[in-house]
């Protein structure tokens, strides 16, 4: 596996591969890889000749008081795991390489970034779309792979790619969960024993909500209240939001007739966890 830190060098290398007709699959990450990331790399390896994985903790998507400095990092481990999963190229730029002195340009998707995580993390998606658009320009992939766990992010990226006429196929892959149902996340490492035990309520509440819909419940408010009630039974849980939204516009729905996204964000101690599930009304 080749490892690059400089934009000029990776662009040169991948440019030669593209000239030879190679297809490129791209998996952008912030590192501290877990099975969710590795599943994306495996999907990419099945579809493409070359698999590029980026490891870059992007400062522009963190707000004041968030965990930028504490975000877990272990590059040697990431290199080993990425290679084992099928990555052929790793891109690990420094912040100064991606945002040199005098940097002034940002990419922003409107409306759908103001709900869910965007409501409580202002500026977050501006940072996400900026860094992803830069990475797309650097890597020039045929396909890019994202996880369903970050559902809003995937929807926002798809909108950006469509609106800016980027010739990239966005592939969203299923959530990978721990054996007890907790969605895998690099931030799970922050949880203490009690927090970890109680955090499983997130997936449990989502599975319950989907079952309610499958059994014919259409009242979104009733379902939302049931989720909140279940989560609040865990004393360490502090709800940021619970929302049931249209899968394209991300606006709240009152009656569930079509496919919806049920999404939530909950803090356990200082750790903010997100999870979601898709469901379709009968």
Automatic annotation (TrEMBL):
It is found in: Cytoplasm. InterPro entries: Cyt_trans-like, Pantoate_ligase, Pantoate_ligase_C, Rossmann-like_a/b/a_fold. Its main location: cytoplasm. Pathway: Cofactor biosynthesis; (R)-pantothenate biosynthesis; (R)-pantothenate from (R)-pantoate and beta-alanine: step 1/1. SUPFAM superfamilies: Nucleotidylyl transferase. One of its GO terms (molecular function) is pantoate-beta-alanine ligase activity. CDD domains: PanC. GO terms for cellular component: cytosol. It catalyses: (R)-pantoate + beta-alanine + ATP = (R)-pantothenate + AMP + diphosphate + H(+). Signal peptide: none annotated. The active site is at 37 (proton donor). Homodimer. Catalyzes the condensation of pantoate with beta-alanine in an ATP-dependent reaction via a pantoyl-adenylate intermediate. It comes from Vulcanibacillus modesticaldus. (R)-pantoate binds at residues 61, 153. Beta-alanine binds at residue 61. Belongs to the pantothenate synthetase family. HAMAP family: PanC (MF_00158). Keywords: ATP-binding, Cytoplasm, Ligase, Nucleotide-binding, Pantothenate biosynthesis. The lineage of its organism: Bacteria, Bacillati, Bacillota, Bacilli, Bacillales. This is Pantothenate synthetase.
């Amino acid at each position: 596996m080749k490892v690059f830190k400089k934009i000029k060098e990776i662009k040169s290398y991948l440019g030669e591969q593209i000239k030879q007709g190679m297809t490129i699959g791209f998996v952008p990450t912030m590192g501290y890889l877990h099975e969710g990331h590795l599943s994306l790399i495996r999907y990419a390896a099945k579809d493409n000749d070359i698999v590029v994985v980026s490891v870059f903790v992007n400062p522009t998507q963190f707000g004041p008081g968030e965990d930028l400095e504490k975000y877990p990092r272990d590059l040697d481990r990431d290199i080993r795991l990425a290679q084992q999963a099928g990555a052929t190229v790793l891109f690990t730029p420094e912040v100064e390489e991606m945002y040199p002195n005098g940097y002034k340009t940002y990419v922003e998707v409107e409306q759908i970034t103001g709900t869910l995580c965007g409501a409580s993390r202002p500026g977050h998606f501006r940072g996400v779309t900026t860094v992803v658009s830069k990475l797309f320009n650097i890597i020039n992939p045929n396909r890019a792979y994202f996880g369903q766990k970050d559902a809003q992010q995937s929807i926002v990226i798809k909108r950006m790619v469509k609106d800016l006429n980027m010739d990239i196929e966005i592939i969203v892959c299923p959530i990978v969960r721990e054996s007890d149902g907790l969605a895998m996340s690099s931030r799970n490492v922050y949880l203490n024993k009690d927090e970890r035990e109680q955090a499983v309520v997130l997936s449990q509440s989502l599975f319950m909500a989907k079952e309610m819909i499958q059994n014919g419940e259409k009242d979104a408010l009733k379902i939302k209240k049931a989720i909140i009630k279940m989560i609040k039974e865990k004393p360490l849980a502090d709800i940021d939001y619970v929302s049931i939204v249209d899968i394209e516009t991300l606006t709240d729905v009152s009656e569930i007739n079509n496919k919806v996204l049920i999404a939530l964000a909950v803090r356990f101690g200082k750790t903010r966890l997100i999870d979601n599930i898709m469901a379709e009304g009968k």
